[in-house]
Amino acid sequence: PNRAVFVLALTAPSKSSNRRPTDAILGGNDMRIHWPAIPHNWRGNINELFIVAAGVVLGIAATEGVRAWTDAAEIRTIRAALEKELTDGYYARNLREQLSPCIARRTRELNDWLDLPPDRRPRLPDYIGLPLSVLTYDTVWQVARSNGSMAKMPVRDLLGYSRLYGSHNVFVENRKREMEIWYDILEFGGRRTIDEREASLLRVRAGGAMRVQAAFSSNRKVPVAELARLGIRRTDQNDRQLLKRALADRASPLCQPLFPA
Fold first, then answer.
1. CA–CA distance, 250 with 98 (Å, rounded to integer)
2. pLDDT tens-digit profile of 11-41?
């Protein structure tokens, strides 16, 4: 009764009939017309509209729920990968910090050697030493930024990860500068006599090594606070690996006296 019905049926006139075909169009007996039924009241229309609207709302809610669940699962995966990548970078920073006293002593020994009269300088060791460290990457961060995964995180967490990786990039650049300086210093291994130009170059390189050391120290506090805020913690296993690696590097030539007694 609440639905409008319109039925139009046309039948061909019988052969015995004397009516013309056009008579049906004009309203002959062979044409049946049912006029639309008017709803009984306005509440019926409102009920139908409510049912349609509720169906649309439920469909949208179900779609958004599935999308939210998928986004949450993706964010959990990205967070775990970022945590692993950042933790590895933090271990590399700690390892570099463990070598800081060795680097400071080596540059001081080189400057003391340069301060000696040329005829009193002992022969430098063949291998002066090189600050070693583990490799660090930001592959997960780059992938998460390129596919839009980071945009699904809360803004505060997104800013925290941005600061961490900004500090990580500074650390990587300092490492590149440091390695270039120390590879130049290695060229002086085994030398006893050097001219004034070479002596000036070695002194500049030793000073550059100390400036990079100061840059490492100024960039050290940033990751500690952000790692703690994001809940990224070191595990005991990684701490033991870090200690083992640090102790091995402390036994390297860089951490031994330049001129053993």
1. 8
2. 444 444 454 444 444 445 555 555 555 555 6
Strand partners, 8: 33
Quote the CA–CA distance of 225 and 190 in Å, as a whole number: 44
Write out the two tokens for 238. Answer: 């990684």
Return the C-alpha torsion angle 94, 137, 140, 93, nearest 10. 10
Rounded CA separation 98/118 (Å): 33
Whole-prediction pTM: 0.67
Q: What is the 3-state secondary structure (H, E, C) of the chain?
A: CCCCCCEEEECCCCCCCCCCHHHHHCCCCCEEEECCCCCCCHHHHHHHHHHHHHHHHHHHHHHHHHHHHHHHHHHHHHHHHHHHHHHHHHHHHHHHHHCHHHHHHHHHHHHHHHHCCHHHCCCCCCCCCCCCCCCCCCHHHHHHHHCCCHHHCCHHHHHHHHHHHHHHHHHHHHHHHHHHHHHHHHCCCCCCCCCHHHHHHHHHHHHHHHHHHHHHHHCCHHHHHHHHHCCCCCCHHHHHHHHHHHHHHHCCHHHCCCCCC
Mean pLDDT over all residues of the chain? Answer: 77
Tokens describing residue 61? 């809610």
Count of beta carbons in the 10 Å neighbourhood of residue 254: 20
Question: What's the pLDDT at 100?
Answer: 87
